[in-house]
Amino acid sequence: MLLLYNFSISLYSFGAKIAGLFNPKAKLFSQGRKHIFSNIEKELNQVRVERKKQGKQTHIIWVHCSSVGEFEQARPLIESIKRRQPDYFILLTFFSPSGYELRKNYEYADWVFYLPMDTTHKANKFLNIVQPVKTIFIKYEFWYNYLHGLKKRNIPTYIVSALFRENQIFFKWYGGFFRKLLTSYNMLFVQDENSKKLLNSIGIDNVEISGDTRFDRVYKLLNEKTRKLDIVDAFSQGNKKLWVAGSTWPEDEKNILMALNRLPSNKLILVPHEIFASHIEEICKRFSQYNLIKYSDILAKLNSFDTSLAESRKQIKEYFKKIGKADILLVDEIGFLSSLYKYGSFAYIGGGFGAGIHNILEAATYGAPIVFGPNYKKFREANQLIEKGGAFSYISPGELVDILEKWLTDENFLWDTSTVCRNYVSENLGATELIMANI
């Protein structure tokens, strides 16, 4: 089984290289791992040599996330470690380009790298170079060779904000190889009682119900000083209700357009998940009947003004008025979607017609009730918010119109659903402190 596993990993790596000839994301996946070991060794050794001169040790905590969503779960833990143990170093790894490219300059991590592929040789080489004192995996990270190597070296290893379901391979009669992975963790911090029961049923007892650290992260957004968003401030002016559609895909955008055509007067901030030029061009064509402005075009225009001249300052003021008259603000830059949800009376979350919806908690923490497509069942928070009445799923554009129209026209309904979302986030805080107390 191990031979088959290693072969599958190598095949995946080879497939990514071939796909990289045609797909920009696959290209990043492969190129990001070129010279990975020499880069890691060089950067870590520079610090180790300097610390040794000072008579200090280099304690490294390795944190691994798959992508952006898992990073948001890791973030409160990383920042808590840095506050409590400022002399420790954080090495952060990502599996996907989405996470790495967005967070490669994350200020609380001392190093950020792609995770080398999980073959026996590469996993052992990585662990020999890094020599972590502790390792934290996030949610669904079960890499056999890394976990086996960590256990063999007696390095304390944890998985946090984990979710387990009956249909996972660990709980099948043929899942013995994968069940062994679970014995490598010193503690499994899970989100709910069902996960704990499932693990207990296969003899895994070192389990703690901690909840989801993302709640702590998104709640912090309410009190965080985010960068001033003058452009969005200008766009949001006026009496029209404004809503935010975040992490959208083409199917979402098609449905949003059909809904917009039938809705009362409103304004939309549209934030696509992929911002490749071809996709942005497609969106502009699709929404051409509306007064749409691109965030990047606004920045370029503002940068063209000479603010030292009175005439230019006057032109900037007039330009901001023009921004306020637009119907749609298309945000074609990454990194600040979470800051945009505070502008919306309600939110649309993309991905529900693909692999699954994206993060809904960033919107919920601002009290924005949420709507998304049908593929949400594996997301605990989506199921719970639907049950409580703060989130809604739709299949047809007509259903989407009904939901959005009620938020646009019924203030009481909007207030009630908004309150549900705020309360849901505040009721689920505390996972970070519980985990930190244990590790």
Fold and architecture overview:
Helix content is 49%, strand content 15%. By secondary structure, it is of the alpha/beta class. The protein has two domains: 2-162, Nitrogenase molybdenum iron protein domain (Rossmann fold), CATH 3.40.50.1980; 230-426, Glycogen Phosphorylase B (Rossmann fold, 3-Layer(aba) Sandwich), CATH 3.40.50. The strands form two sheets. It has a seven-stranded parallel β-sheet, with helices on both faces. The chain has a seven-stranded parallel β-sheet with strand order 10-11-9-8-12-13-14. Strand 4 (134-138), helix 7 and strand 5 (157-162) form a beta-alpha-beta unit. Helix 3 (36-53) packs parallel to helix 6 (120-130). It is globular and about 65 Å long.
Mean pLDDT: 93
Q: Characterize the overall form.
A: globular
Radius of gyration over C-alpha positions, nearest whole angstrom: 23 Å
CATH H-level superfamily of the largest domain: Glycogen Phosphorylase B
**Overall SS class:** alpha/beta
| Widest sheet: strand ordering | 3-2-1-4-5-6-7
**H/I helix tally:** 21
**Approximate helicity band:** 40-55%
Poorly predicted ranges: none
- Kindly state the number of beta strands: 14
At CATH's second level, what is the architecture of the largest domain? 3-Layer(aba) Sandwich
Count of discrete structural domains: 2
